[in-house]
Automatic annotation (TrEMBL):
The keyword Acyltransferase applies. Residues 29-150 form the Phospholipid/glycerol acyltransferase domain. This is Lysophospholipid acyltransferase family protein. Keywords: Acyltransferase, Transferase. It comes from Streptomyces cavernicola. GO terms for molecular function: acyltransferase activity. Residues 223-247 are annotated as: Disordered. InterPro entries: Plipid/glycerol_acylTrfase. The keyword Repeat does not apply.
Amino acid sequence: MKLTVGGSLKTVFRPWVEGLENIPADGPAILASNHLSFSDSFFLPAMLDRKVTFIAKAEYFTSPGVKGRLTAAFFKGVGQLPVDRSGARGAGEAAIKSGIEVLERGELFGIYPEGTRSPDGRLYRGKPGGLARVALATGAPVIPVAMIDTEKIQPPGKVVPKLMRPGIRIGKPLDFSRYQGMEGDRFILRSVTDEVMYEIMKLSGQEYVDIYATAAKRQIAEEAKKAEAARKKAEQEKAEQDKAAKA
């Protein structure tokens, strides 16, 4: 399945990649990437010879019917790992446990430190719980990755993807073994996460925003709601004015 999907993506979109030499030929490593699009988890593995395991919502693997079975088969084929996200803390612990298990098998584990897709193409503050805890618990090197232009291929609400070349920049491995066993120290977790996000920012060229992407999404939703309310109010006032003018 990986060969089929990867080959199709390479043929159709022709993604470019820099820094493949930074991916180890064997042994465990964490690929920490920015997150611009749903397709990030497909383009990155497609360009690597080694399997990369990402975390995916359990719902992708449990939906009923023929479509559900096909979706589950697709996600399993491209290296996605189901995690139940019902409950924030439980979801985080499950993701950490899964990541550690992948790395203990000597494999590559992919993670998005922002925790969710960027709502506007900017780079947001990394969440310290997942990435740093997995890195310090395993001693695996962290490889910063920047996805380029993937958000332009299939923006939210668009069904048909745009044919264009996305890019991938892979940075040099970061060694945090000096902090191994200190995953209980929140200041160390913050420091590790910020160092990784700084490297991702340099690779991607994105504007950095020092708030969480989830908070930014809430702000955007609230602003959109206020704008819609203001628009409706303006329309109502105009209608009342027009009615009064005709009277």
